[in-house]
Specification:
Elements lengths: L1 E2 L18 H5 L23 H12 L1 E4 L41 H21 L9 E13 L2 E12 L10 E9 L6 E7 L12 H18 L3 H7 L24 H7 L3 E5 L15 H6 L12 H16 L5 E11 L1 H12 L5 E5 L17 H5 L15 E4 L13 H6 L5 E6 L12 H17 L29 E5 L7 H15 L3 E2 L1
Parallel strand pairs: 1-13, 6-7, 6-8, 8-9, 9-11, 11-12
Antiparallel strand pairs: 2-10, 3-4, 4-5, 5-7
Helix pairs in contact: 8-9
Length: about 525
């Protein structure tokens, strides 16, 4: 059994509270950028506005008009549908266990060699896009490492930079940002949950009181040197310090009153890594000629079947996993991925396409994530083919076309759906999480639709010899949703709707306990 020693928190540490003045900046030696000359002349990267990027994609696809997406405002004339009687214009989801020629998948071998590749291809071709074969390599370096505290436990915090080789297009630079936290008081490698969110040290070690005094004295001297009239002012306020000590702060509790998710992970003997998705690819249409998508295309517009932001973020997670597999503090075969909202979509896409990830916590992912594309409830495919099309392959826009060279199409024409995306995660640990509308997890996200897709995906776990969703009713048309806060956590496919808002934080402790049981993590506090 793995055990940990207990550490008490150190005295209050200190942080920089004010920006350095122009005097300090002028006293700093200038940095000189060094840009390598390109090996061959390339056209400059294209700069599109969001509207121009969307218009370019429509022209490439031969689309003359798109259906407008519904409004989230219930008082708007084109408000979204929330009537369950109208929610299923295409009532049947594609069968994850039926081959394209109509045959039923009967063995695990048929799943791995025939059906799964079909589903992967269709998602790549029509929904999320293909990852180009010429994506450059990533070199990870440690920026800094120190011992900090997450909650009441000491951790080893390591800030990392993943530099993407940009010699093919020096005008576009991509550097992945990731920070790894592992408990300092657990001996041996630990499971790690990679989390899509801004990256950085959780609680950087601050200067000691003696060091802070030296810094403040130096700052005062520089300010007076820059402006001698400040001397009398400083003398009249002798106790004032440019950088005050950091006051003690209580933790921000989760919506359910629990401790922050990162505290819960470390307290359970896990590690976690924060990966900034937008360090790989911007979260906007203008960024399609920048980031990793732009770098691969030398700053030119992408092809219709190429990846969108969701797959780019998933690619970044895979690159982060490449590093984690080399770190002896990490159980490389027990790394999970987590995200909420658009990053919940990205977490599910990551798990579906990269089979090295052992588990996933999908938070409030909505359309393009766990919610069926075919359903007409809340957010629509037409919202995704409009303003948020850059998350997907440009080809996905075809399913919002009302007038195009190829005719018109609608969500019922999409050859795959979210139940099959979930099924691509089988037989690994997959936890679908939602909150409640009353707390801010809006009906727009279609919690019930995600429940239906989860039910429909469960038979794939059974086929592969793993326990699926722990319910007796596997008819996604009729299976009742479990009550709020009454999760189905008995199988490797899990569902729980917590009583919080647009966050998976209240479900984190349930995810940890559920995963621990299946991976046999013998941690004891």
């Amino acid at each position: 059994m793995i055990t940990r020693a207990r550490f008490l928190p150190t005295p209050s540490t200190f942080s920089l509270a004010f920006a350095l003045s122009a005097a300090l900046l002028s006293a700093t030696a200038p940095a000189h950028a060094q840009n390598a000359a390109p090996e061959k002349a390339l056209p400059p990267p294209v700069t599109f506005t969001a509207d121009q990027a969307h218009a370019y994609a429509m022209k490439e696809l031969g689309i003359e008009a798109l259906r407008p997406g519904p409004s989230g405002d219930p008082n708007a004339p084109n408000h979204a549908n929330y009537d369950e009687a109208k929610a299923n214009p295409h009532p049947h989801l594609p069968d994850a266990l039926r081959l394209n020629d109509g045959r039923k998948v009967a063995t695990p071998k048929e799943w791995w060699t025939e059906r799964r590749p079909q589903i992967v291809h269709d998602f790549e071709q029509y929904v999320y896009g293909f990852v180009p074969k010429n994506v450059p390599s990533v070199t990870w370096t440690v920026v800094a490492s120190e011992k900090e505290f997450v909650g009441f436990h000491q951790v080893i915090a390591t800030e990392l930079n993943g530099h993407v080789d940009n010699r093919s297009c020096p005008l576009i630079s991509v550097n992945l940002r990731m920070t790894l936290m592992t408990p300092a008081d657990v001996h041996g490698p630990v499971p790690v949950l990679m989390m899509f969110r801004p990256s950085g040290f959780p609680n950087p070690v601050q200067p000691s009181p003696q060091e802070l005094e030296k810094i403040n004295n130096a700052m005062k001297a520089l300010l007076v040197k820059q402006d001698p009239s400040l001397g009398p002012m400083m003398a009249s306020h002798p106790a004032w310090q440019p950088i005050p000590p950091k006051p003690f702060e209580f933790p921000h509790l989760n919506a359910d009153g629990g401790l922050p998710s990162t505290w819960e992970l470390i307290a359970a003997g896990w590690g976690y890594a924060t990966l900034d998705p937008q360090s790989a690819q911007p979260d906007d249409a203008e960024g399609l000629t920048r980031g990793i998508i732009g770098l691969v295309n030398h700053g030119q517009p992408r092809k219709p079947s190429q990846w969108g932001a969701l797959r780019a973020w998933a690619w970044a997670a895979g690159q982060g996993l490449n590093y984690l597999e080399t770190n002896p503090a990490v159980k490389a075969n027990e790394v999970g991925i987590e995200g909420v909202s658009r990053y919940g979509k990205a977490a599910l896409v990551t798990m579906a396409f990269d089979q090295r990830f052992a588990m996933v916590l999908v938070g409030s992912s909505g359309k393009g994530g766990a919610t069926p594309l075919r359903r007409n409830f809340g957010e629509s495919v037409y919202n995704l083919t409009g303003g948020e099309y850059y998350w997907m392959a440009a080809n996905f826009m075809r399913y919002g076309a009302s007038r195009a060279a190829f005719g018109s199409r609608n969500p019922g024409d999409i050859p795959v759906d979210s139940n099959e995306l979930i099924a691509l995660c089988a037989p690994r640990l997959t936890f679908i999480s939602y909150g409640i509308p009353a707390k801010g997890d809006a009906l727009w996200l279609d919690q019930r639709g995600s429940w239906m897709a989860t039910v429909a995906a469960s038979p794939v776990w059974t086929l592969l010899g793993a326990p699926g969703l722990s319910t007796n009713n596997l008819d996604y048309h009729t299976a009742p949703m479990p009550p709020v806060s009454d999760g189905l956590l008995g199988g490797k496919l899990a569902w729980r709707q917590d009583d919080g808002g647009h966050t998976d934080a209240p479900n984190m402790i349930y995810f940890i306990r559920w995963a621990d049981e299946f991976i046999g993590y013998p941690f004891s506090s």
